[in-house]
Design brief:
alpha/beta, two-stranded antiparallel sheet, Rossmann fold
Length: about 220
């Protein structure tokens, strides 16, 4: 890694103006990727998540199960096509500005998110990021099995995955940046030398102020 430091970025509500599920959900239903009976369930969970009543470690396993039995390539193609259509409008210009600033300063740019790998790949390609740490789905005979490879990349697991990525070299985190909107990313925020919270809720904002972390309102 011939870079001076690492900058990690969360995806939903950090790089993206909303969540990847919100962007992809309606089109996924129209294209038969997600069955119509999931609409009400998805809306309820989305409202619960927005209110802070439901966390991603509850929602993500459901989304993984919804894909069970689907052939992989049509889903990959669907996500690629949808993101190509909506990407420019869905990405926050402020996030692009920060990414380009770190790129100019010779940072290694990593997308670190609980979102699924096939959702993330169009994003890192579009933004020219260097690498990806995320939730990876298990595939059997070119179909989704309804399970993940390892644990969800959520909460403490984000830090675990990052340390594994760095071969447990914690010193690299001292100069690292991490951008996120979520209180559930607290382990990673506490581990890096430059934590940055983006449009945080009141709980995360209060903690960030108390600890002197950078707060952006995008």
């Amino acid at each position: 890694m011939n870079k001076d430091y690492i900058a990690f970025f969360d995806l939903d509500h950090t790089i993206l103006k909303s969540s990847s599920g919100h962007i992809l959900g309606p089109a996924a239903i129209r294209h038969g990727i997600v069955k119509r009976r999931r609409i009400v369930e998805a809306i309820i969970y989305a409202i619960g998540h927005k209110l802070g009543l439901v966390q991603g470690d509850v929602i993500l396993p459901l989304m993984v199960k919804w894909l069970k039995g689907h052939p992989v390539q049509p889903v990959f193609d669907f996500v690629q096509n949808i993101f190509l259509d909506v990407m420019p409008a869905a990405i926050r210009k402020e996030a692009v500005r920060e990414i380009e600033m770190h790129r100019h300063n010779n940072a290694h740019l990593v997308l670190l998110t609980a979102s699924m790998n096939f959702i993330c790949k169009p994003v890192i390609e579009f933004l020219g990021l260097d690498d990806l740490i995320c939730t990876t789905l298990h595939i059997e005979n070119d179909h989704f099995s309804g399970t993940t490879k390892g644990d969800l990349c959520f909460g403490e697991e984000k830090l675990n995955r990052t340390l594994s990525y760095l071969n447990n070299n914690k010193n690299q985190l001292k100069n690292a940046y991490f951008y996120t909107d979520s209180f559930t990313d607290l382990p990673m925020l506490e581990a890096v030398g430059h934590p940055v919270v983006v449009s945080p809720d009141r709980r995360l904002a209060a903690m960030a102020r108390a600890r002197g972390w950078t707060i952006y309102r995008w």
